[in-house]
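Lab notebook, bench 4. The sequencing result for the construct came back, and we need a structural model before the next group meeting so we can plan mutations. Quick request posted to the team channel:

Model the 3D structure of this chain.
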Amino acid sequence: MNHHRLAPSPTGAQHVGNARTYLIAWLAARSQGARITLRIEDIDSPRVKPEAEAGIIEDLAWLGLDWDAGPIRQTDRLSEYEQQFESLKHREMVYPCTCTRSDIAAAASAPHAEHEGPAYPGTCARSRVADAATLDRPYCWRFRVTASPAFDDLFRGPIAIDLLKDGGDFVVWKASRTPAYQWAVVVDDALMGITDVVRGDDLVPSTPRQLLLYQAMGWPPPRFAHVPLVVGPDRRRLAKRHGDTRLSTLRNKGMPAKQLIGHLAHSCGWIEYPEPISANELLPLFRWDSIPREPLVWT
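Done. Here's the predicted structure in token form:
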């Protein structure tokens, strides 16, 4: 049986943009009878807000999106990430790196996309795993990038990113001694048997990195589908500056979930007019090919 996941991060309130991605992910799973696990990606400790998990569960329930297993929290799985990480160390596929962000920025020879940061120049790439024991300052662990796997996205088609040029060796274990997003997500999806990952297209650059980690561990990768984000009129990702689009605010103002879902379903081309409809009623109407390729501008 196919196995999907909903994987929210409790770093703040969920908004209309999150709701659209969750709705697409839920319908993609349920329309083919797949199982869904709810995973709370709370490993990003400085930004995690204690009340956010309860808010996520309330928001999903309000939208009528259910799941079969979970919530599973990444912070409960630290020993699993650590145990699996030993395999990469054992094979020298990672190395300790003492470079700070400013070191990397200073070494950058070309401008770079704001969300990607400059490519890592390989300053510490000659380090060996054993060198970590002799370091007297904080260090992270980087994965040695030797290839850049292309992939066939279920929504966007063939995608190829040159990791050697765009990012280089990437962090898999942070200097704060916790796993980086790329590592935690791959371990979770592989060990939970996730077959399909539906997420926002801001994560497209993560996919070839994650595919390298699947290959390194000998794990079969899931299928990926990256869907457009919701943006404000300035074409930037939906945020506070675009007004209050939090689901909790819409709910407290008395908006029925069906009304919001109707707007989102119309934006995905599943219904002709933005009329109230439930997530369940959309199941027979779900289609990948009707979802527009460009971001949804929310006004």
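The domain at 79-182 is CATH 3.90.800.10 (Glutamyl-tRNA Synthetase; domain 3).
Will bring this to the meeting.
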